[in-house]
Amino acid sequence: MLFCILLEIRPPHFLAPADQLSDSDRSGSCSSQKMADNWILTVTARTPTNIAVIKYWGKRDEKLILPVNDSISVTLDPDHLCTTTTVAVSPSFDKDRIWLNGEEISLSSGRFQSCLREIRARAGDVEDETKGIKISKKDWEKLHVHIASYNNFPTAAGLASSAAGLACLVYSLAKLMNVNEDNSRLSSIARQGSGSACRSLYGGFVKWIMGKEEKGGDSIAVQIADEKHWDDLVIIIAVVSSRQKETSSTSGMRDTVETSLLLQHRAKEVVPRRIIKMEEAIKNRDFESFAQLTCADSNQFHAVCLDTYPPIFYMNDTSHRIISIVEKWNRSKGIPQVAYTFDAGPNAVLIARNREVAADLLQRLLFYFPPNSDTNLNSYLLGDKSILKDIGVEEAKDIEGLPAPPELKATQKYRGDVSYFICTRPGSGPTLLSDESHALLDPATGLPK
Ligand SMILES: Nc1ncnc2c1ncn2[C@@H]1O[C@H](COP(=O)(O)OP(=O)(O)OP(=O)(O)O)[C@@H](O)[C@H]1O
Ligand SMILES: C[C@@](O)(CCOP(=O)(O)OP(=O)(O)O)CC(=O)O
């Protein structure tokens, strides 16, 4: 029986007209055609976001997304910030479709198309004996997919949604289509969806090697160390604004490449040295060097944005205030306690050397940026909320009683200038979610649940 069902399943609209069917086609056509109308195969995966500590900014090839320098990132714990994507294939689908955060969006962009094309070109044979489904390598060119993706954090707000999103798209499709390639090879496909996405194929500490080849085959991500290597680190993100930004990373870096002389100096002289030092700092868990390099690189990235014509401003007054709080505190301690870094937006990503320092940091941040009176504490700190206990904050009113940081003379507060905080840590790479309850597509219809 199973053999009969498995004979050959072709999408109904690709079935040959009856008079062109061979005997073997006919012998299996009844059950397989019936099955062909009904089956849906799905895969769900979860992929983390990442924050660059040595920034990628500038492409040498826009279409293939090849960068002008190497970059290094820390993968953030997917328990707190992640994309979940379900991909489905069925002969009953008549076109490729994608839903992002519940809304259908166009798949026509060159970037989505590049990822789909590259994955399809590497697809393998798939057989699901329990469902009686067999898809051969060549069938993938004709079958269509449905994709549903959800980011559990703001999209297009400088929190690298494109990184987690495109990495998850490529990873889940690769699993659905049985692509037999390691994550580094998959990273070079994700790179063509969004540069920073290639680094989300690994957990821990990741380097995107810029590569030299014209076609970009050697522009891949590699893991420097996994998330357990340096598990003291605690990361606090201050979400300063979750509105969509004015200048996208893509257009911003294009303008920078065209107009900034500082970028050329950075890519040629500064980053190559910093990459070597940053790799060493990570391998040796040398927080002092790690923090010094991270802050310097973030500052240079924003200087390069300012050196662009027309100038790009991603940070705002709140971002600058946070830098000042951290700089003064680090100086008062003699050695860095916290590193800061800002991507293409005003949100601060603060990396504390350990949990104790992270608690002191959160105390300072809550002191200067208390929530509005109508904000609930539960929605003001997301992620690992247990850190609130460390500073004795159980309710929003406890924030009012926090002591002023001793190293700072100014005690003016900036109530409401931070939308919320996220407390997280370095985290793991992509994972498959086998529990059906995580799927975003209905297994019976292939449409969003
Ligand atoms: N889960 C997802 N699946 C597929 N595509 C996504 C997903 N999330 C985001 N994207 C794509 O990425 C775009 C947002 O990218 P953009 O670079 O503007 O912002 P960001 O990645 O949040 O910020 P940044 O890269 O500057 O930190 C979205 O408009 C969408 O096209
Ligand atoms: C500031 C950055 O976050 C830039 C991210 O740029 P994207 O990867 O979003 O850009 P595209 O490749 O055009 O999609 C720094 C970084 O992540 O390295």
UniProtKB/TrEMBL annotation:
Sequence ranges assigned to domain Diphosphomevalonate decarboxylase-like N-terminal in this UniProt record: 48-221
Enzyme class: lyase
Primary localization: other
Cellular compartments annotated: Peroxisome
GO CC aspect terms: cytosol; peroxisome
SUPFAM superfamilies registered for this protein in UniProt: GHMP Kinase, C-terminal domain, Ribosomal protein S5 domain 2-like
Domain Mvd1 C-terminal: 235-432
Catalytic activity: (R)-5-diphosphomevalonate + ATP = isopentenyl diphosphate + ADP + phosphate + CO2
UniProt keyword annotation of Lipid metabolism present: yes
Keywords: ATP-binding, Lipid biosynthesis, Lipid metabolism, Lyase, Nucleotide-binding, Peroxisome, Steroid biosynthesis, Steroid metabolism, Sterol biosynthesis, Sterol metabolism
GO biological process: isopentenyl diphosphate biosynthetic process, mevalonate pathway; sterol biosynthetic process
EC numbers on record: 4.1.1.33
Keyword Lipid biosynthesis tagged: yes
GO molecular function terms noted in the UniProt entry: ATP binding; diphosphomevalonate decarboxylase activity
Similarity section: Belongs to the diphosphomevalonate decarboxylase family.
Purpose of the protein: Performs the first committed step in the biosynthesis of isoprene-containing compounds such as sterols and terpenoids.
PANTHER family: DIPHOSPHOMEVALONATE DECARBOXYLASE (PTHR10977)
Name used for this protein in its record: Diphosphomevalonate decarboxylase
